[in-house]
Amino acid sequence: MKRVLINELIENEESKISGFASKIRDTKYMIFVILKDRTGSIQVSLDKGTQEDLCKELDGVLSGSVIEFTGKMVKSEYVKQGGKEFLPTEVNVISKAEASPLEENANIDTRLNYRWIDLRTDKNQLMLNVQSTFVEGMREHCYKEGFTEIHSPKLIGAASESGSSVFEVEYFDRKAYLAQSPQFYKQMALVSGLERVFEVAPCFRAENSNTNRHATEFTSFDIEMAYIDSFEDVMDFEEDLIIAGLTKVKEKYDEQIKDLFNTEVIIPTKPFPRIKLEDLYKEMEKRYGYQIPEYDVGDMNAEAEGLAYKYAMEVYGHEFIFITDFPKTKRAFYHMRKNDVPQGYDLIWRGTEITTGAQREHRYEVLKAQCEEKGLTKDVEFYLQFFKYGCPAHGGFAIGIDRFNMLLLNIPSVKEEMFIFRGPNRLEP
Asked: Would residue 424 count as lying in a domain?
């Protein structure tokens, strides 16, 4: 008999179900098993008086075990599990579990040590499904808009982008590095004529950051698009992309998110507010008495990001805000400049930066000069070759999907949101 998913059970129809026993309760007359699969859970009820042999199959079986039951689903007003229970005629214990090492209120490090058990909760299952659906919505939007999905290498021969904060690995008789981002290869794809590309892939940052939103390995949704007129086109596309992803999540999981995370999926309106960095500094000082510290001038810090969100909500009633006109000293060498001002932006959502985007410099001589200005000529020599043979005007951005999902569901730390977290002090499981 083929397995039937719990949410597909038909009343009084002989069926086989299987999943994890999230709870087993052994009473004087009955054994109750809460069986859970990817679609939900159901109470399986065994009568000790009439099903002695079946009950013996469950002797010593603990919660967390994987069990298969054959029988029928019936309606019952006495059962809390959606008014349905499963009455088995056969029991097959597929895999016995030991007692769980996770107590109910285990701390985050203990939970991460046993992440495969920790992820079995309804809340964590929903968390990962929400992330998957958000990516699905963005992917669908990209395909609809004529994008090609690419898969760039993560082992590279030169330290990428900045020449720092990279992981070095042995590669046969030479050194290689783990890619900080697919930035260079996205641009190479445009030079090859693909025009619009995206990638969902891991990125690696060798930064000893122990904040609630940093990881040494994370997943990024990267976009690059050609034949743009300005970085405003890039911002316009990101607005549509985020709206597409959030709309997909809201349609599928809105009520469950409200129930389990006590928050609501809010679909933002267009356009998102936009403000120059210097104007934002003035507004923060005037409204909140906040002056950016001298060592952060020309950039944003965590406190400034929080105030930018507060400003966007107060003035525009909007959770998102684009910040533009950063100084060239704080932006990557490949950002195009107009009147010596980088043509790019940061996007702040709920008090956290989620994107740095820009129009890229596509003119070889200008790009080479900006490389030299940053002292990166040797490291990016291979990259400069892309622009010698013709390149369209283009731009792009990246969204860290783990950080985005953390903010969406109001999860305290990216450690809790990620499927498997990697940080300065964690390399297992």
From this structure: no
| Residue 339 clears pLDDT 60, i.e. is over it | yes
Contact predicate 346/355, CB 8 Å: yes
Q: Are residues 70 and 149 in the same domain?
A: no
- At a CB cut-off of 8 Å and minimum separation 6, what does 152 contact? 179, 182, 185, 186, 189, 199, 201
259 and 180 in a single domain? The answer is yes
Pairing of strands 174-178, 196-204: unpaired
H-type helices in 160-230, by residue range?
A: 183-191
Domain that holds residue 30: 6-95
Structural tokens at position 51 = 């099903």
C-alpha triplet 344, 349, 352: angle, nearest 5°: 85
Rounded CA-CA distance 196/148 in Å is: 6
| In a shared domain, residues 139 and 35 | no
Q: Are the CB atoms for 333 and 384 separated by under 8 Å?
A: no
With vertex at residue 115, the alpha carbon angle to CA 113 and CA 121, rounded to the nearest 5 degrees, is 135
Residue 41 has phi, psi (to 5 degrees) of -140, 160
* Strand duo 344-349 + 320-324: pairing: antiparallel
Number of alpha carbons in the 13 Å side-chain half-sphere of residue 383: 27
Predicted confidence (pLDDT) per residue in 187-226, tens digit: 999 999 999 999 999 999 998 888 888 899 999 999 999 9
Q: Does residue 122 surpass a pLDDT of 60?
A: yes
Closest Cα partner for 231 from 139, 326, 151?
326
pTM, to two decimals: 0.92
Cα dist from 229 to 277, 337, 392, 395, whole Å:
22, 13, 10, 10
DSSP state of 39: T
pLDDT of 346 above 60: yes
Residues 76 and 191 in one domain: no
* Closest C-alpha among 14, 159, 3 to residue 88: 14
